[in-house]
Amino acid sequence: MSHASQTIPLTRSDEARLLFGPGDAHLRKIRETLGTSIVLRGDSLILDGTTEQVEQASQIFARLREVLRRDGVIHNELVSRLLDTNAPASLVSATAEIDLFEKAKKIRPKTPGQQRYVDAIRKHDLVFCTGPAGCGKTYLAVAMAVNALRSEQVRRIVLVRPAVEAGEKLGFLPGDLLAKVNPFLRPLLDAMNDMLNFEQVRIYMENDVVEIVPLAFMRGRTLNDTFIILDEAQNTTLTQMKMFLTRMGEGSKIVVTGDATQSDLPPDTISGLNDAIARLKNISGVTVVSLSGEDIVRHRLVREIVKAYDQGPAPRSSPANS
Fold it and tell me: Which of 3, 39, 101, 313 matches a 20 to 30 Å C-alpha distance to 166?
């Protein structure tokens, strides 16, 4: 491999100390992970190593300096997250788990398909994931959102679901609007509550750090520095999907999940999920992950149930004799 060297001028007298962390902990972690020589010489950082090592270290320090200018501090979790994203391929498998920074709780993908999904979210700003019930589409997306929030990659999380089943019939449900749409948003909140303690979720929601909203409430908004998840996207129309995707602002990431076999749209309505995948799959920064029954990690029977329904109409049985 070719050798490279790069000089990064520092602009503040205390910048090196803040970048290196307490006891140079950040510096040691970057050196050990990337194998790059990093030396402070005067008021500049000198990076030395292979071309790939120097480029990776340069990208990490650029991001750290950006966060330092914005927040005035760099947390260990941010350094770990950046190294997870930029580490050489040989090291990625060792950092496959999703760290929630919640009493050392971590979530690890359980199948190769789930691992591809998590890797895709790490590497792309717009990810479409399709697959049957129980394959982890929503749960892993929420876990990645929590990780991004707590490692300061984003400032907030917005979880979105279409309330297609309700349609124009919300009025017959009891309670105010929030109570009416709650059954359709509940699965997203359940996933969040499984990862964080109840009090933390409550504080996040009260301060709009985490927002769980029906798809219709997204119109007219622009979301910057936000991790946005659209769940049950097979129930969106073309117009709704276009409206949702164009809410994406600077520094944001979108994950769209759905199961094409479970659409509640009228028979003659084209699913916005299928249409968007066909239109956007070849755009740089967009990727599509397809999970299957092999990725189902719920109760053993769920995989068998999905397989049975995928086989087509059930055989007709003779009426029982009275």
Answer: 313
